[in-house]
Amino acid sequence: MSDRQTKTDVILIGAGIMSATLGALLKELVPEWNIKVFEKLAKPGEESSNEWNNAGTGHAALCELNYTNEKPDGSIDISKAIKINEQFQVSKQFWSYLVNRKLITNPQEFIKALPHMSLVQGESNVTFLKKRFEALSNNPLFQGMEYSDNPEKLEEWIPLIMNGRTSKDPIAATKIDSGTDVNFGALTRMLFDHLKNNKVEVHYKHSVKDIKRTSDGSWEVKVLDMDSGKMEHHTSKFVFIGGGGGSLPLLQKTGIPESKHIGGFPVSGLFMVCKNPKVIEQHHAKVYGKAKVGAPPMSVPHLDTRFINGKKALLFGPFAGFSPKFLKTGSNLDLIRSVKPNNILTMLAAGVKEMALTKYLIQQVLLSNEKRMEELREFIPNAKLEDWEIVVAGQRVQVIKDTEAGKGTLQFGTEVVSATDGSVAALLGASPGASTAVHVMLEVLEKCFPQHIKEWEPKIKEMIPSFGVSLSGNPDLFKDIDKSTSQTLGLSKKEPVNS
Ligand SMILES: Cc1cc2nc3c(=O)[nH]c(=O)nc-3n(C[C@H](O)[C@H](O)[C@H](O)COP(=O)(O)OP(=O)(O)OC[C@H]3O[C@@H](n4cnc5c(N)ncnc54)[C@H](O)[C@@H]3O)c2cc1C
């Protein structure tokens, strides 16, 4: 029996970066709406959005090679890179707006300038990187990118990676100083502080168990208060399912037609974390390599300087792996429970198609520390086992759905699934992830509140001046926006390598 029944305008499920962003946008657009948040953990930003659970890359396609594919004619397709970069510019603009309005403070606690680099070895990879550099560096969004295949230059850029390197294979890198490291955990906590200060009711240790349509078209959300053990019923006109990996099971509970024929494929992650301050100090960049053959795009190895708890850190990974859990704090039964009569064929088709991926992930889980060290030594030839420890990262649940490419196709992107009447929306998938949170939450608003978008547009443009405009096609506007966001977010200064 419920002991509590309440009505509200908006319910946000989950206290990660996505709900935080949607809540913050709505607070600016319609401050009078009542918003409630239910989070099953004790604090915000504890799952994938936590700083130790993701790689903290402000994904802007500055260094990630999987966003620029080589076409059959040998040219490089940069359209995806432009799209991702533009989406990150949207995030930076909204964060700058919040800082300028003093709705969040101390941006240096969540974002820092950090060079983004791509590093490759071997002749064909070097040729690819050079072509990629030439294709990107003509575009205003990628201005300032440098390329070098000169070992002396590379030694200057990445001493830790070049020291002790004996291979005679050609090696090359690109470097761009406008990259960032983002502490999405810190940002999520700041946004939730802001929401709480602005009359948003945030209920921690409240687990959502069910979501049902009511006779008037609203949604009734059944929530377990984990401290008292009592069940509560909250109704709302709009529900956003921002449960991260836990979104799919909640979406399935709504029963909307759009929730059918979708499955989830969980991929776990591990990072190696450096414990030696002398080694940490010798590196100052995010250096992305090329994914191994058969590896999923999200397991591209990278060596990253990070800024966590006010300290510089050095992380390598992520090593992908298989775990049936949908959340790091989830259950081993998550995957099996997500198989329903309507998605079993989709899931089975994916199982057959993705045998190689499953095999790869299982092999990754079975890697010994020594094998992981071998992969690390491809980046840091002199790496010592005693300087590194393992931390478990977050879970990424990739979407499986039927597409033009066939039944049971694994998707590596982020997807907003919403009811046709816009009364409920869920965010599935995790890539490019938190970096594009603002763009994706604007998509939620456009899909779910089409009747309000026109009236909201002036405010959205005030917050995000590039809304609806291609920055890549408007170099002057990009220059202005980049200058002002960099100033507001404190991204203009460079930090030297301390080698
Ligand atoms: C290894 C790894 C590396 C990554 N690297 C990057 C990167 O470098 N850059 C980048 O931009 N993105 C990266 N990502 C992706 C990024 O972390 C995610 O896209 C983002 O954090 C997702 O935010 P979210 O709010 O959707 O989910 P989460 O942060 O996972 O939040 C979901 C919340 O919902 C809660 N919840 C779930 N079910 C329920 C329920 N039934 N009731 C109540 N609460 C519930 C959970 O407890 C959790 O707090 C990475 C992810 C991983 C795992």
UniProtKB/TrEMBL annotation:
Pathway: Carbohydrate metabolism; tricarboxylic acid cycle; oxaloacetate from (S)-malate (quinone route): step 1/1. Its cofactor is FAD. InterPro entries: FAD/NAD-bd_sf, MQO. Keywords: FAD, Flavoprotein, Oxidoreductase, Tricarboxylic acid cycle. SUPFAM superfamilies: FAD/NAD(P)-binding domain. Its EC number is 1.1.5.4. It catalyses: (S)-malate + a quinone = a quinol + oxaloacetate. It comes from the Bacteria. Belongs to the MQO family. This is Probable malate:quinone oxidoreductase. It comes from Bacillus carboniphilus. The gene is mqo.
